[in-house]
Fold this protein.
Amino acid sequence: MDVLIIDGHPLVHEVMGNLVRSVFGDVKLRTALNLEDAAATMRNNVKLDLALLDLALPECVGIEALTQFRGICPTVPVLVVSADDSRGTILAAMKAGAIGYLPKTLTPKVMGAAINLVRAGGFYVPYEALGHERLVARGTAAGGPASRPRLGLTDRQREVLQLIQKGYNNRKIARQLEISESTVKQHLHTMFGTLRVSSRTEAIAAAQRLGFRHE
């Protein structure tokens, strides 16, 4: 795993680097203070698996930082990590091709869960910033009916959420989905972080509040 952190503050490199290592384990971690440094890294024929990009770089602020980086590295998945948690900026970043958006106000636990979600093939968008209707629209655009928003979860995590809505315990969920109980626990841990909850009951309440219904 090869990850590039692009942020103008070295302290953020350290904090985010520790967080990335906690999620990915054995990872080649690279850092850049600006887009010029990032471009220099890419000129060394580095094949990145993920880039974490701040939107407040010294020479380029806002969505322009994302669009310029994607111009340099069009095939590298980009996870935005920014102090700007405004709805307009988040929507613009997702429209510009980001696979997720992490406000710097998130706790390390939630950030780790969000990065883990991205690693599993999902996307992360803070639902407080986007609002219910945007999440529903996102689910519809992905091919699902409007009554089943994705909530920022992977398909498997949504299956687990449906089953806990039905009252299934971990053992029954594992049997139903033909996975191990430890895998169920991992899905629950990541799901709780994504939904910003700490229990099954809170997860069910959050899902219902956002329009997610089990079948």
